[in-house]
Amino acid sequence: MKSIMSRMKGEGFTGGLMSLPYIVYFSFFIAFPIGFSFILIFHKWNIITPMEWVGLRNFIRLFSDAQFFKAILNTLTFLVIHIPLQIIVALLLAVGLNQKIRFRGFFRSLYFMPVIVSGVVITIMWRQLYGYETGLLNMMLLQFGLDKIPWINHPTYAMPSIAIMATWKNVGLYVVLFLVGLQNIPGFLYEAANIDGAGPVQKFWYITLPALNNTMVLVMILSTIGGFSLFIEPFVMTGGGPMNSTLSAMLYIYNQAFYFGHMGYSATLGFFFACIVLLVILIQKKVVERD
Amino acid sequence: MLFLNQLFRSRGNGYIRHFILVMIIAGFTSSCSNDKEASTGSKTGKTIITYWCSSNAHEIALARELVEAWNKGDHPVQVKMQPIPASQSSEEVLLAAIAGGTTPDICSNMWPGAMDEFVNAGGLVRLDQFPDFYDYNIERVPEVLMETFAASDGHYYQLPWKTNPTMIMYNKRMFRDAGIEELPRTYSEFLEAGAKLTQDRDGDGHIDQWLGYRNIKPIWWQRFFDYYTFYVAASGGLTLFDGDELVFENEASIAVFELFRQIYKNGYFPITEFTGDQFIQGNLAISITGPYAISHVEKFKPEGFEYDFFPVPVPDDHEGLLYTYGDHKNIAIFSTTEHPEETWEFAKYLISKQADLRLLELCSQIPIRKDLSIDPYFSEYFNQRTMMTKFAEQAILTRGVDGAAELKEIFDAISQEFEACAIFDARTPTESIHRAVERSKVIIEWNRAK
Q: Mutation test of the interface with chain A: which of B111, B273, B336, choosing the one with the most A Cβ atoms within 10 A?
């Protein structure tokens, strides 16, 4: 006992003291919200009136809520378009920026810029680009004698349009990750391939891609988590429309909580959705990750 | 505290130590002084009450002027004015304030649709407990309208203040150029006007002038200015509820959905997102709006721009009075106040004739007064502004929204069906209205289940 006390007064105490800011942060901003959300799952609560115990009724409501499942389906649609697009574009750009080209540093910074700009600002900018009557993209199409496209005003086009915008915004981050991965591939592998007479495509396919497997897993997991939290883009750009085609799960949860005041129900939706994300990540990791 | 103790005992960090010490003292003294000022009024020794007004520039100017005049007078309380904190909506801020116990003493931006939630939360003072409450309101407010402001317990928690009757603002030159001599009164005439006004002016094969435009986002409150305005007019002044019963599955709703379906189908309203005011830019012939638009148009209109207002069109077979949606905003006193009597006195001052005249002059908004258009006190104002006279006359034929806690969700359900039927023609009006009602019933059942 004495030794514990003396250790506490020594290095252990200093260590504990230095960890205190994080412990406080963790307690208030992570542990408490998670714990409180879990309690909310079993309650009906609109913030201003007392909580009402509802048992598992929030779950019963969830399983009969067609709109929530539509929102999950929309989110998966977004992921199916966004993730491959993100990986292909990021990989191609990273390979390009890994070459000895002029202004390489400038281009690397340029592609990263959208990542640090506010999502709301970018979404407002793209909303103007996508405008049906006065948007720049449609003005360009008209110049080429083509028809206008209802980018965000038609259920068929709206989610792919948002996926393109999200890719444009996030691709810089994944370019950086791929660049790190590319720079870690030992040069002798390419030298050996050169001696064996391999062409650029063969080198890319048999050396670059397998060597980037770990980065690929990381990029997929990060963009999957990012994709599942799709919120700002539909919130600012479409409000979930047209005809709920861009209603993401996060937007639906937000609406339930902060528009309609169903805190308990939205906590249940959030919990259920987190389980789905976890499941998808586990499957993804299993499928993509190799030794 | 141990951390601070160690920090102050350690050596070599004098600057940090002094900085932290200064910050702590500054924070402590400022919090003390705030508390003192909020409760007693540090300079005058009088009690201070806090008043939240709307955050738009015109209403801030009005509130500032009224509060300054009040504070100069001989009143037992001084008023501290503050615009309602910025957020997506005032209701969100007020809910958060009620939850946090940080509500002001009084607020003049109370939307009747959210009152039920505030009342259920015990956040408001019952105003009909004041002996002169009815005297004030019988004089000002039409009886039928007054009844719509009663809470579900039969009591009044809001003091009717102002309304913005929704009407159709139109570009006179465009109507003239299109050869429209009579303003459209019925749906057939409205659609006929749409056909004439929707044009390809530069002949490039693309429409560049439309009858009008509505934001197509499926956001619940957007429906106040298309579906609901037209529904109130078509139904002769009905709202969504009759008591506890939903009543909007009717001919009026179906007719409104059908009207907008025709409008979008024929391209009279574009399915798009615009930036900037297309009405002022001369690309739209009409705008569905309230009297507050006058200040805006007057400020930004180009030279020679002519505009006026006409009532909301009604179905061809409509008979009777022409009602419309009135975007009411009322005054409420929060139960956190320590001075309800004094705050009530200030509330009455906010609806005085002088204050109402300034509301008209500064904000172009209509105070709820049944004799507004004939009261000599206001006659000079209305003689100079004929457009505002139309709103003053329309104001007594307005309907607000029901004070149901589920209202936002019900409007959300309507909004989704409106989008599916009217904008994308994916369902018939009858089917869409039925679906909206069914969904609303599920929402109500869930919310009211014990």
A: B273
SS3 for B74? coil
Provide the pLDDT for residue B219: 85
When divided into structural domains, chain A yields a total of 2
Both A50 and A93 in a single domain?
Answer: no
The answer to whether B440 touches B406, Cβ cutoff 8 Å, is yes
In B302-352, which ranges are continuous DSSP H helix? 340-350
Do residues A222 and A123 share a domain?
yes
Q: Which of A48, A161, A232 to mutate to test the interface with B (most CBs of B within 10 A)?
A: A48
Laid out side by side, the sheet with B307-310 consists of B286-289, B167-171, B307-310
What integer pLDDT is reported at residue B16 of this predicted model? Answer: 41
| DSSP codes, B168-206 | EEEEHHHHHHTT--SPP-BHHHHHHHHHHH-B-TT-SSS
List pLDDT tens digits, range A12-52: 788 888 899 999 999 999 999 999 999 999 999 988 788 99
* pLDDT band at A289; cut points 50, 70, 90: low
Q: Which CATH class is domain B167-325+402-448?
A: alpha beta
Q: Give the residue numbers spanning the domain of A98.
A: 65-288
Q: How far apart are CA B285 and CA B209, in angstroms?
A: 8
Residues A217, A272, single domain; the answer is yes
Question: Are A47 and B96 within 8 A, CB to CB?
Answer: yes
Q: CA nearest B379: which of B398, B365, B360, B394?
A: B360
Give the domain ranges of chain B.
43-157+329-367, 167-325+402-448
C-beta separation of B312 from B168 below 8 A: yes
Cβ pair A193, A269 in contact under 8 A: no
Q: Which two tokens stand for residue B173?
A: 């030159």
Distance from CA of B10 to the nearest CA of A (A): 13
Per-residue model confidence as pLDDT tens digits over B287-338:
999 998 998 899 899 999 999 999 999 999 999 999 999 989 999 999 999 9
